[in-house]
Amino acid sequence: MTDLIRVLAVLLAGQCVLAGAAAARPLDQVTGSGHLVVGVYRDYEPFSSADGDKALHGLDIDLGRMIAKRLHVDVQYLQITAGESVSDDLRNFVWKGHYLGYGVADVMLHVPVDREFSLKNDNAYIFAPYFREQLMVAIDPQQTSSADLISAFGEHKVGVEGDTLADSYLMGAFGGQLRNNVTHFHDIDAAVAAMANGEVAGVMGPRSQVEAAMRAHPGHYKASAMATPGLMIRSWPIGMAVKVNAHDLANAIDPIIQKMIKDGSFKKLFAKYGLSYLPPTND
Hints:
- The chain is an alpha/beta fold.
- The chain is 34% helix and 23% strand.
- The chain has helices at residues 5-11, 27-33, 59-70, 86-95, 115-120, 149-153, 165-172, 188-196, 207-214, 247-262, 265-272; strands at 35-41, 49-50, 56-57, 74-80, 107-112, 124-139, 158-161, 182-185, 202-206, 222-224, 235-243.
- The strands form two sheets. Strands 1, 4, 5, 6, 7, 8, 9, 10 and 11 form a nine-stranded mixed beta sheet that branches. It has a two-stranded antiparallel ribbon with strand order 2-3.
- The longest helix has 16 residues, at 247-262.
- It starts with a helix and ends in an 11-residue tail after the last helix.
- Residues 9-22 have low confidence and may be disordered.
């Protein structure tokens, strides 16, 4: 899955994986069944992915388990293959269901929280932002030590995942001056590996993905949120969604999330995966 440019375009303790799930349910049906169906994106490091034996792991996997535990039910996961837009994902995996019959989740994680986006997707209820994603740049100081984009990548290569916010921005920024130095990769992991090999001087992408990829290449790399002139959206809150008739389930989950934010649980959870934690608000 990309870094959610699909969203930004719109805006600018049992554990098992379900092949299919029942209709999204209100709280009493969830507690009565003894399990919570949590929707997570497929192959989306560091939030949810499967290892060799198909066991799911990642930050959103842990979060789903923690929510279910606090609701006193088991957790089941519905893996979501990203569609062309997050609106498609909400329709297919939260409030209607996919035509192939995958079923829907009781709650879907990693949903952008934005008023206009919510109004356009009124069959789902989007709530409980749990962190803020941010565009960031990692550089190899042995190749460039500049603290601004035009100086850093006016003469040096910068890696991005194709068809993402970073890609779109760098291709057009500064009147296209950086375009010839933008190198495209199929994901952030590949871009960071290329930086480690000296093929590019830096990488631009979502903070969580860049930091996760850098764990495989420890060293002298520097990461920061460089100024991005002309870019209206530099960060965005990430929350979750339920079907619009499941407000009571959302009302049960929301205080769990708020408590985890306040007591430092999210900071610890992000640290487990080598990530910086940015609270969902700008406070």
